[in-house]
Batch of 2 targets.
Target 1
Amino acid sequence: MQLTGEPGALPPAAGTPPPAPADEPSSPAAPAPASEPTARYRLVRRGAVVLAFLFLGGVIAWFATHEAFSWRNPLASAKFSRLSDFAGTEQAAAISPNGKWVAVLASRGGQVDAWVGEIGRSG
């Protein structure tokens, strides 16, 4: 029995094919692994980054110009006036969604009543 290979290596079992030499490739048609991305991949990646930045810039511009997110004070030109002249305590005032009516809870003489009046009209 003749031993081949590295010193200290066990002989192959009976019926197994001998291992291929290390300097021969196992499959000659297999391409070498690519270590760098292709030019097309880099172009697509750059295009995606540019589109993402353009989209982000558009969203920021929309938020900056949209009036719902504006920093302006909505009460800057408001005119305030007294709504009632009750002698008692008034609380929990609410204005209607259309801005034409106001409701107030008022305590006159110990009893709390709800009062409704039209805004801009006296009496």
Target 2
Amino acid sequence: MKAMRISSFKIGLTFVASLLCLMILMPCGAPSSAHAADDTLSVVYCGDLAPFEYTDKAGKPAGMLIDYWNLWSVKTGVKVNFIPAAWRDTLTMVKEGKADAHAGLFYNEERAAYLSYSPAPLTKTEVDKYYKEDKLIWMVFLGLRRLDRFFATRLLWKRYEFILPGKIKR
């Protein structure tokens, strides 16, 4: 039981870390003229930073940050063109205007001179509060489902038709 809690904690921590990487530290360079012309945003990424950003076996961009950018593209209607490059080249491309944005970076004073970072980052407190509320909601929901199963099977002697999930991994 304790091992299950620890692994659930690690999964949740990994998810929170990936959210923080994207939401807190998503830098954008100055928009290039190409972006204004065809409504496409060029995003440069390092091709070997799995699971965050990498190039898959088919040669396509993949990873958590790539998924976030694709979702952003769907929500905003702006097409995203991913450009793979070596780590040092990614920074140079954004700095020189060859790419509109970087897939995701940590804040750095030196880079802040030529990058714009998200103005309102998520804090650890906000993330912890979300997970605390989410945990409470699921505990109540699963408790009510177990109570429903108890009444149906033990008191009414009926077959319980629903499958209850096991422990929720976070």
